[in-house]
Design a protein that fits this description.
The structure holds 2 protein chains of 2 kinds.
Chain A (H helix, E strand, L loop, with lengths): L1 H14 L2 H12 L7 H21 L12 E6 L3 H13 L2 E6 L2 H8 L18 E5 L7 H10 L8 E5 L4 H9 L4 E4 L4 H17 L15 H7 L32 H10 L1
Parallel strand pairs in A: 1-2, 1-3, 3-4, 4-5
Chain B lengths: L2 H17 L5 H8 L8 H25 L5 H18 L2 H15 L3 H34 L7
Helix pairs in contact in B: 1-6, 3-4, 3-6, 4-5, 5-6
Classes of the chains: A alpha/beta, B mainly alpha.
Subcellular location (chain B): Cytoplasm, Cytosol; Nucleus
Keywords (chain B): Cytokinin signaling pathway, Phosphoprotein, Two-component regulatory system
InterPro entries (chain B): AHP1-5/YPD1, HPT_dom_sf, Sig_transdc_His_kin_Hpt_dom
Chain lengths: 269, 149
């Protein structure tokens, strides 16, 4: 366990500023110190708030919710998976709304059918959507598309979860603007990484992300150079399902792209 | 049996479940999500899994009894079952679901029926084992001890 904590902290250090590094380290340590668990949760919430305020002070309009916590909308038709993802997100100090279908997710956002949401929806503002891919009725992919087509909600990062580690599926989702793709079963390290990355983006990019088309393409070089090899980003490197050599090393990919690169790649298509 | 013996028995039992492939690493993940503020998390998730599984196995039995077999529907159920089994770390059940799906794809009724029986069997075994494990945990807690991680 101790080596796990160190490992996690080492990776995170490369992405985060030092206060958050300590928090992540402590998060692992306090599993074995139950009494300090509650205090730690407060500390983490405090850290999250600190990060937000830091971003705000830079003058960027953060797209985070008005409340202190990150509000995640989790979408999964499986009640087992909903329970697990809810717990994973709560441990990561997020506020969670879990729904069982794409339709309900759209209803929650105020985006059902042809109606666009009014701006008076701030109280229930969603900072991140994490959705299963395979769902009856509306798939996660269709939900992703609806969100990205909405002028009000397209800035909300959407993460797709799927039990199937299929390159074409992953690419399809990423091309449609998904922030990331997690192969199920979802682990705590996956969720932590997603939230961490999101917080980093909020701190660094801030308001600059507004209005930018979030289409993304794979860029393995950039991924490798900025951090350790993808397979070590999750705490257990053997988390991938048996897969053919042609699938990616890491079940999750996070991509960044400048508008110049977007221009280049879209022409290449 | 005294507390220490109970705790040892639990650890041994749990280890054997992993060793024999009934449970995989994902179950460990779930245990790590449990803490003193959420002491029943694993039991709650597994209970939901039992609920789901029983429903799905029922649906599968019914679907395979039909005159005209709807393989797509069966595959959808098996996919769900595979998913939830994977989410709690019920490795043997999950692996059988993969085989089951192959038979669905091949529209092989005999294969599907055989798989259904096997899946039902494996599921009932892992259910019994998990329930035994939870019972051991309860005994330890009732004896005033803590459940070893």
């Amino acid at each position: 366990m101790k080596s796990k904590a160190k490992h996690y902290s080492r990776i995170k250090c490369q992405q985060w500023g030092s206060p958050v590094y300590y928090i992540s380290f402590l998060l692992f340590k306090t599993k074995f110190h139950p009494v300090s668990g509650i205090l730690l949760e407060m500390a983490v919430n405090g850290a999250v708030t600190w990060l937000r305020r830091a971003g705000e002070m830079d003058g960027y309009g953060l797209s985070a919710s008005d409340t202190e916590e990150v509000h995640v909308l989790a979408v999964d038709d499986s009640q087992v998976d909903r329970k697990v993802i809810e717990r994973l997100l709560k441990i990561t100090s997020c506020k969670v709304t879990a729904v069982d279908s794409g339709r309900r997710a759209l209803q929650f956002l105020g985006l059902d059918d042809e109606k666009e949401a009014s701006n008076g929806f701030d109280g229930l503002k969603v900072d991140l959507i994490i959705t299963d891919y395979c769902m009856p009725g509306m798939t996660g992919y269709e939900l992703l598309k609806k969100v990205k087509e909405s002028s009000v909600f397209r800035e909300i990062p959407v993460v797709i979860m799927s039990s199937e580690n299929v390159i074409t599926r992953i690419d399809r989702c990423l091309e449609e603007g998904a922030e990331d793709f997690i192969v199920k079963p979802v682990k705590l390290s996956d969720v932590k990484r997603i939230i961490d990355c999101m917080m980093t983006d909020l701190r660094e990019g801030g308001g600059g992300r507004r209005g930018i088309n979030k289409r993304k393409l794979r860029d393995d070089g950039e991924d490798r150079s900025s951090s350790s090899p993808p397979s070590t980003l999750s705490s257990s490197s053997s988390s991938t399902a048996p897969c053919s050599p042609t699938t990616v090393d890491s079940p999750t990919r996070r991509l960044k792209m400048t508008s110049f690169e977007e221009h280049v790649f879209s022409n290449k298509k | 049996m005294d507390l220490v013996q109970l705790q040892r028995q639990l650890v041994d039992y749990r280890t054997s479940l992993y060793h024999e492939g009934f449970l995989d690493e994902q179950f460990t993940q779930l245990q790590e999500l449990q803490d003193e503020n959420n002491p029943d998390f694993v039991v709650e998730v597994v209970s939901l899994y039992f609920e789901d599984s029983e429903r799905l196995l029922n649906e599968l039995s019914k679907a395979l009894e039909q005159q005209i077999i709807d393989f797509k529907r069966i595959d959808a159920h098996v996919h769900q079952f595979k998913g939830s089994s994977s989410s709690i770390g019920a490795q043997r059940v999950q692996r059988l679901c993969i085989v089951f799906r192959n038979y669905c794809e091949a529209q092989n009724v005999e294969g599907c029926l055989k798989c259904l029986q096997q899946v039902k069997h494996e599921y009932s075994i892992v259910k019994t084992k998990l329930e035994s494990m939870f019972q051991l945990e309860r005994q330890i807690l009732n004896a005033g001890g803590s459940v070893p991680v």
